[in-house]
Design brief:
This protein is mostly helical and about 220 residues long. It is built from six helices and two strands, in the order αββααααα. It starts with a helix and ends in a 22-residue tail after the last helix.
């Protein structure tokens, strides 16, 4: 009875076993030499299928060899897709935007943050164009923007390096600081001997004698 039961069980399962075996053979074939992996821009992730791409294949590919790209291929992104690439975006490699993360339109709708990491961790909002252009990522107009804060940059402050006050700015962090003079100039106060500011009790309200044009000669503030 046990032998007969095993025989019946085997007969009922053999179609499934055959299907699994066929699937294994197919996978081995795909992983073997039957399918060639694309070698374009290695290190930037897999190349996504683009059989619906609105262009002639020969614009970018060498004839008959779809594993390589032409060294001098040109593609008018605006004419072909309706989206103009300007500044540094014009020189970016295609896979920087068109990759396996998903449709590029999804990330484009998020603005700069769709592709670029926010090094300022949300401190300045998402309007990147206030400080950056597409030509390069160097900021512009910092003095004018800083004048909208509680500490406008006047005199020598306008030419001071950001790192002189904001530690961590090299990596995009601009921690708010106290606007009192001693927040940055405590060491200058301690080193002042003629006259001795600490001895005379001149340790606050520096603007009674100093204006931000030089750190050496006191002048009566207007």
């Amino acid at each position: 009875m046990k032998v007969q039961a095993k025989s019946i069980l085997f007969k009922s399962r053999w179609p499934w076993m055959l299907a699994v075996y066929g699937l294994m053979v197919a996978c081995m074939s795909i992983g073997g030499s039957d399918v060639r992996l694309h070698g374009w821009w290695q290190g930037l992730g897999p190349v996504m299928p683009h059989d619906s791409f609105p262009a002639d294949c020969s614009l970018c590919h060498d004839g008959g060899n779809w594993q390589g790209l032409k060294d001098d291929f040109e593609f008018d992104h605006e004419a072909r897709t309706g989206v103009a690439l300007r500044g540094a975006h014009e020189k970016a490699q295609c896979l920087r935007c068109h990759n396996d993360r998903g449709p590029v339109q999804v990330f484009q709708a998020q603005g700069c943050g769709g592709c670029h990491e926010d090094l300022h961790v949300g401190q300045f909002g998402n309007a990147c164009s206030k400080c950056h252009t597409e030509d390069n990522w160097r900021p512009f107009g910092q003095v004018e923007l800083h004048n909208q804060t509680r500490f406008p940059l006047v005199g020598r402050h306008a030419t001071a390096s950001c790192r002189a006050c904001h530690l961590g700015n090299e990596v995009g962090r601009f921690t708010p600081i106290d606007t009192a003079c001693l927040s940055c100039h405590r060491a200058d106060l301690a080193a002042t001997a003629n006259p001795n500011h600490n001895g005379l009790g001149w340790v606050d309200r520096c603007n009674r004698c100093h204006i931000p044009t030089t750190w050496h000669q006191a002048q009566v503030a207007p």
